Amino acid sequence: MNVTPFTIAIPDDALADLRERLARTRWPDEINDDDWAWGTRGDALRDLVEYWQRGFDWRAQEAALNRLPHFRADVDEVGIHFVHVRARGGRGRPLLITHGWPGSFIEMRGLVPLLTEGADPFDLVIPSLPGYGFSDRPTRPGFSPGAISALWVKLMQGLGYERFGVQGGDWGAMISASLAQQHAQVVTGIHLNFLSGVFPPAEDATPAERAYFPARSAWVDAEGGYSHIQGTKPQTLAYALTDSPAGLAAWILEKFRRWSDCGGDPFTVFSRDDLLTNIAIYWLTGTISSSVRIYKESRQSPFTLHAGERVVPPLGFAAFPKEIPHPPRDLLARHFDLRRYTEMPRGGHFAAMEQPDLLAADIRALFDAIA
To answer: Using 50, 70 and 90 to split pLDDT, how confident is the model at 46?
Structure first.
């Protein structure tokens, strides 16, 4: 596997084009409400777009990102970008952390010092999914969570890690669980802070399990429109989001508000710079179209668990209170070797950004226990 160092370097003309497009935003009319029930509020988005155009310093963010050790590798003829941070003081326990949508590798920045320093540190590998950010945009279908999990095995073993731990939320959780299911022999342990839509109902379901399925269905009905269009007609959506940076910001901002433990104001949890750095990576790399294809890929080749199936590697699960409905302990224990189930005091879907200390401590506790 050919691994080369990588430096983020966005051309000046791409930044100038972005500023011009932001200045020409065509704003819709709206029905405003306090809880964003109709979607992203115009006043919040206008403020963010104004800051993006006039106050946000991409070059400062780019320089900060480049202080991390970035690489690219060709894995099965797909160029994969990843951050590889070795444990301070020597080789650590290998841990692969995978992001989801609408996030990116930058979600994990707060975890890096917490996991690579101190006693029993980790070597961290944090890749960008195919079609996301600085990884290649696939030119053909076939990149379901299961297929990506096979790529990750080759990436890690190409880096010299024959066995390793896996961690993830959102699509990162699905890919990590699929990796543990399909490649159990290489996985030392699995830590998740999300898992949804993969469980079969059981005839002997406990009350907690029976409550989970209607709660998830109600959430999908109220909040899952984005997933349905991304899972059925992602290309149609892509034209608008690729052409309008304000539209892209609206599409992503709403998810950071709805899915986080922010009390209705995302800027109490996420800085504007962090949110815009994440959004800007989608914009400046032109990858919103390729990123959302994973929803259709997953519908066509879903990762599912079957009745009676057990995933072998030991699991730790961090249940954050404002997460999309997460599976109860009983349901996870039915299909996994569940070693930890931690009810977190605060936090939501973007746990690595919202509560990095809590998440890092729980990751450490799992891998300490199974060492």
So the answer is: very high
- Radius of gyration over every alpha carbon of the chain, rounded to an integer in angstroms: 20
Q: Taking the CA of residue 334 as centre, how many other CA atoms within 13 Å lie in the half-sphere pointing to its CB?
A: 20
**pLDDT score of 33:** 72
Determine the 3-state secondary structure of 324 from DSSP: coil
Domain range 3-370, its CATH number among 3.40.50.1820, 3.40.190.120, 3.90.1300.10, 3.90.550.10: 3.40.50.1820
Query: pTM of the prediction?
Result: 0.97
Do 121 and 367 form a contact (C-beta atoms < 8 A)? no
Tell which residue, 283, 352, 296, 290, has the closest CA to residue 320: 352
One-letter amino acid identity for 327? P
Which two three-digit tokens encode residue 132? 């996301």
Axis crossing angle, helix 272-285 with helix 58-65, rounded to the nearest 10: 90
Instruction: Cis check for the bond before 102: say yes or no (omega within 30 of 0).
Output: yes
Which residues does the annotation mark as catalytic?
A: 170, 295, 349
Question: Is residue 317 pLDDT above 90, yes or no?
Answer: yes
